[in-house]
Amino acid sequence: YAVLGVALCFFMYAPWILRSAVCILGASAGSLIATAVVFAIRDEILQFAKHVTSFILGPFDPSIKVANWLERLLHKYLPPDAHRWARGRLGIAVTRVTDGKQLILSDFNSKEDIVQALLCSCFVPGLSGYLPPTFRGEHYIDGGLSNIQPMLPDSSDVTLTVSPFSGDADICPADPPCSLEMVVGTAVLKFSKMNNFRILNGLYPTDLGVRTIEQAFYNGFKDAIRFLQINGEFNGD
Q1: Which of 113, 115, 139, 146 could covalently link to 97 via disulfide, CB atoms 3.0 to 4.6 Å apart?
Q2: Over the stretch 206-218, which tens digit does the pLDDT of each residue have?
Q3: Which residues have a catalytic role annotated?
């Protein structure tokens, strides 16, 4: 939800940054945000995020068919030629089941390719089910399990990174300085009480009330505003 707040902030105050982005990447739920940015379907995703809070276990409640909802949403809002717009510009990170390696899927031949790639990237084993979805005949699972900060090869110096966890990402929560850090894939995160809570709550949600979601969304929005102001890119008109 914090990353969605970042995306909305950029839509409102720095759309030229999104338009000029050569490729927009995301893993797990971040792949949905990346898709929302490319195709401007962010409002529908936020609406669903609020809807699931009425269930005890949020998106992991067995009465919610998240995969079915995603398929319906994507088929409804993605244009028939979505693959032409997304090819090479939308990067969906997935984890290959056979070897645990992260791959960035961006060569799409149809709208269905995009839908299947997103279902793979958002599939959390045990929580989403037990049989992973497939993309072109191969099984993949949550892209964040292999690397929460997907990156194209040799692009670290030109990539704007966003994270809901405090660390070395360009846009992330501004927690107080911390002497301990942990490396997760290519991301460096602060080993702090607040960050540990964010990570645990991301893996095992304990508070999914509407107010909590709105606060996370607002925090991400503020993080993005701060980044734009620091870099002289904020247009508040």
Answers
A1: 139
A2: 555 456 667 778 8
A3: 28, 142
pTM of the complete model beyond 0.70: yes
Region for 92 from its dihedrals, namely left if φ exceeds 0, alpha if ψ lies in -120 to 50, beta otherwise = beta
Strands 181-184 and 134-135: unpaired
Structure tokens belonging to residue 193: 């009480």
Amino acid, single-letter form, for residue 179? S
The pLDDT value recorded for residue 160 is: 92
The token pair at 175 is 């927690």
Strand 138-142 versus strand 187-190 pairing type: unpaired
Measured distance CA(161)–CA(150) in Å, rounded = 9
- pLDDT confidence of residue 56: 42
Contacts of 208 (CB under 8 A, 6+ apart): 52, 53, 58, 59
* CA 125 centroid distance within chain: 17
In whole angstroms, what is the distance from residue 212 CA to residue 198 CA? 12
